C-alpha cells in the first residue's frame, strides 16, 4: 500500500475516533504496517496539517494522535456547539487539579494542607469530570484514598504526558510575570480547546 493511501486511511480513522488514537490501536486496524512506519506517517500527516490553511490540526496527546480544531477558532465553535459555561473549571477546581497534577499520587488531607480549605466537593467534581481518578490507598494509618490525574486531564490541557507540565519553577516564574496568582485562571482562557469532531455515520 502506498504511503499516500495509508495517510488517507489514517486521516479517516482520526476523524471518526473522537479521542486520541494510539499507534498500537491503529496497528490493530492496519496490521501490515509496522509501528515505526505508522508513527512516521502520523507525524507526516500532522506536519501536513500544520503547513496548510485549515481549521483543523493533529495533536499528539494522551499517548495518541487526535484530530482537533485550532484553538484560535474556539469562539466560533463554542457558539455553534453552545458549550455551556458550567463546563468550565472554577478557580478552586483548577487549584486542586494543579495540586493533584504536580504532587500525584496525593491524598485529600495533603491537598487540604496546601489549599487550607476542605476540598471534598471540589474533588468529587473533578472525579465526576474524569479529570482525576482514585488509584488506591496510601499505606498509612487510616488508608486514605490516593488521587492522580487521568487521560482526560491530558486531553483537556493538550498534553502528551504528565512530563509536559511546566516545572514548578517555570509555573512560578509565569505567575510572577503575570502579576500574581491569577495565572491559573488565565490558563483556563488560554488552554487549548480540544473539541473532538463528532463521528459521522460510516
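^ Assign residues to that structure.
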Amino acid at each position: 500500500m502506498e504511503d499516500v493511501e495509508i495517510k488517507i486511511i489514517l486521516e479517516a480513522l482520526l476523524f471518526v475516533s473522537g479521542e486520541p488514537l494510539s499507534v498500537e490501536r491503529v496497528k490493530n486496524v492496519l496490521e501490515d504496517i509496522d509501528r515505526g512506519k505508522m508513527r512516521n506517517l502520523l507525524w507526516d500527516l500532522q506536519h501536513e496539517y500544520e503547513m496548510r490553511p485549515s481549521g483543523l490540526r493533529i495533536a499528539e496527546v494522551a499517548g495518541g494522535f487526535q484530530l482537533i480544531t485550532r484553538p484560535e477558532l474556539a469562539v466560533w465553535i463554542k457558539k455553534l456547539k453552545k458549550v455551556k459555561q458550567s463546563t468550565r473549571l472554577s478557580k478552586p477546581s483548577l487549584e486542586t487539579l494543579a495540586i493533584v497534577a504536580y504532587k500525584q499520587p496525593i491524598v485529600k488531607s495533603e491537598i487540604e494542607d496546601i489549599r487550607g480549605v476542605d476540598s471534598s466537593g471540589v474533588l468529587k467534581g473533578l472525579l465526576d469530570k474524569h479529570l482525576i481518578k482514585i488509584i488506591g490507598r496510601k499505606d498509612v494509618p487510616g488508608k486514605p484514598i490516593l488521587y492522580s490525574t487521568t487521560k482526560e486531564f491530558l486531553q483537556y490541557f493538550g498534553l502528551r504526558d504528565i512530563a509536559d507540565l511546566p516545572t514548578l519553577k517555570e509555573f512560578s516564574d509565569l505567575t510572577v510575570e503575570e502579576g500574581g496568582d491569577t495565572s491559573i485562571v488565565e490558563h483556563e482562557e488560554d488552554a487549548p480547546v480540544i473539541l473532538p469532531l463528532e463521528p459521522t455515520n460510516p
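The longest strand covers residues 56-61.
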